[in-house]
Design brief:
The protein is an alpha/beta fold. About 50% of the residues lie in helices and about 15% in strands. α10 (about 235-245) packs across α11.
């Protein structure tokens, strides 16, 4: 995350993700890894402004000796952030991806129901979204698979599963942990290519030097597909901005984030002049939109 204030940049990403709602109690799933530790810190940082009531939850599958280290790290993070921590120890687990994921979500769901939380937040990142979309493609998929993991979906009655970090990359989250002085643990099973997701992850690592924007691009594309498929208002506004640029002959080589800044202004009925690219601006006033081309 570039800029003089990378911590604030990540906090803005969380706010713009819109997956967490103001005033809700949130169970933050914390594995002890850097992504989930950063999520815990980001939610804690945003809690005063958004009135979030976070609680950390750690699910210990007990399948490897270092699992107890992960639990200890989570407890240290909770202490550092001043957040309560719930530990759930599972037994007799099958060591396959689907079974472990189902057991973990069931445990997090129980914590949410027991504590009255309306959301469970997980630390899925842009890299995780890339892997999910590619795995869906390899299986053969339609638009549902191309949309990847949704930012928010129902987990149980009255409880939603939220993914506020889908537009964040692992490197930025790791840097955030270092800046905040927070501990984290590394999961050795992430390198085990017997798991299909890890095999995809290893292949992507070889591609990223040639395509440095790969993960954010896939995350954006998945978000666009999801919004279009669900008929979201943001999809309509995004189309409106792009149609206006196309009619004015200024659509080529447009950066996604520049279009999104205009979309956000339309969402809040704001006003202003937004730079889209060299010699092309968009002016917004109320619900009006005009494209300005400079010679």
């Amino acid at each position: 995350m570039r800029g003089a204030k990378p911590t604030r940049a990540l906090e803005l990403v969380i706010e713009r993700a819109r997956s967490l709602r103001d005033g809700e109690a949130v169970v933050v799933a914390c594995s002890g890894g850097p992504d989930s530790v950063a999520l815990a810190a980001l939610v804690s940082a945003g809690a005063p402004k958004h009135r979030w009531r976070p609680l950390l939850a750690h699910v210990n599958h007990g399948l490897r000796a270092s699992a107890w280290q992960d639990e200890a790290v989570t407890l240290r993070v909770g202490a550092a952030l001043g957040l309560a921590v719930r530990i759930v120890a599972l037994e007799n687990q099958r060591a396959d991806e689907a079974a472990l994921r189902a057991a973990r979500y069931a445990a997090l769901e129980r914590v949410a129901l027991e504590t009255g939380a309306s959301a469970v937040a997980t630390a899925h990142t842009a890299e995780d979204q890339t892997e999910t979309v590619l795995l869906a493609l390899f299986r053969g998929t339609g638009t549902a698979g191309l949309a990847g993991m949704p930012a928010r979906r129902r987990l149980a009655a009255g409880v939603d599963l939220c993914r506020p970090l889908l537009r964040c990359d692992h490197k930025s989250l790791l840097h955030y942990c270092h800046l905040a002085g927070l501990p984290y643990a590394l999961d050795p099973t992430n390198a085990d290519v017997r798991y299909r997701r890890n095999a995809v992850r290893t292949a992507l690592e070889a591609l990223r030097p040639s395509f440095p924007g790969l993960d954010r691009a896939v995350a954006r594309a998945a978000e666009v597909v999801a919004d279009e498929s669900a008929g979201e208002e943001r999809a309509l506004l995004r189309r409106r901005v792009r149609d206006a640029l196309r009619e004015a002959g200024g659509l080529a080589d447009i950066d996604f984030e520049h279009v999104e800044s205009a979309v956000r202004a339309l969402e809040r009925a704001g006003a202003g002049r937004f730079h889209i690219k060299r010699k092309v601006d968009v002016t917004i006033g109320g619900s009006g939109l005009a494209v300005n081309r400079r010679s």
